[in-house]
Write a structure and sequence with these properties.
This protein is of the alpha+beta class and 202 residues long. β1 and β2 (25-29) form a beta hairpin. The longest helix is centred in the C-terminal third of the chain and has 17 residues, at 153-169. The protein has a nine-stranded antiparallel β-sheet with strand order 1-2-7-9-8-4-5-3-6. The chain is 12% helix and 27% strand.
Length: 202
């Protein structure tokens, strides 16, 4: 029942708050290991969550883990979505990234942060599905705004624009595309969902 009401019972990334304002937080995140899947939405017909189930199968969220050990890997939150097209292509935290070229605009990259016990990519079990890539991400800094409810394209676009304006106004240099972090499963009631828009800064 806790998950329906937004209770987050899984590991979330540790970070250091460098600055907190009425509009946003500046956070520094330590290095992490990520499971990543890049795909075209047309390859995921019948799967409304895009690549989520492929990554969930890798960690064993729905049964036997699809990795070579096989080792069950704990789910973490958020799932992160990256987009670099003009329009926002959604997935979950899980991270989704879309390329800039016309064809690539439709490509999506979704990412799960692996538990902090995995400090290097080679420590994580190797995926059976070759589409899943394990990689390391270094220390990084973001401007972050937290919000409740359903993270629709329109809401996210509005949050991104407002955050960009606030960061630029305060002299921060934006160095990449935004991430959408979603902390709750789809069955969580909308008012209890926690979402974040994160913009990388120097």
């Amino acid at each position: 029942m806790g998950m329906v009401f937004g209770k987050i019972r899984v590991e979330t990334p540790k970070y250091k708050v460098l600055q907190s304002t009425i509009d946003y937080e500046i956070r520094q995140y330590p290095p992490s290991v990520i499971a990543q899947l890049t795909y075209h939405p047309s390859q995921m017909k019948g799967d409304k969550d895009g690549g989520f189930s492929v990554l969930a199968n890798y960690i064993g969220a729905f049964g036997n883990p699809q990795n070579t050990k096989p080792e069950k890997i704990a789910m973490t939150a958020p799932v992160i979505t990256k987009s670099s097209g003009e329009k926002i292509a959604m997935t979950a935290p899980v991270v989704t990234k879309t390329g800039g070229a016309e064809d690539e605009k439709k490509m999506v990259t979704m990412e799960f942060l692996l538990p902090s016990k995995y400090e290097k990519a080679e420590e994580a079990p190797r995926p059976v599905d070759e589409r899943v890539v394990i990689r390391e991400e270094g220390e990084r800094k973001y401007g972050v705004v937290t919000f409740r409810g359903v993270a629709t394209d329109e809401v996210v676009e509005e949050k991104v624009e407002k955050l960009k304006q606030s960061l630029e106004r305060d002299g921060y240099k934006i160095i990449g595309e935004f991430l959408l972090a979603r902390y709750n499963p789809p069955w969580t009631l909308p008012p209890f969902r926690t979402n974040e828009v994160m913009i990388p800064i120097e």
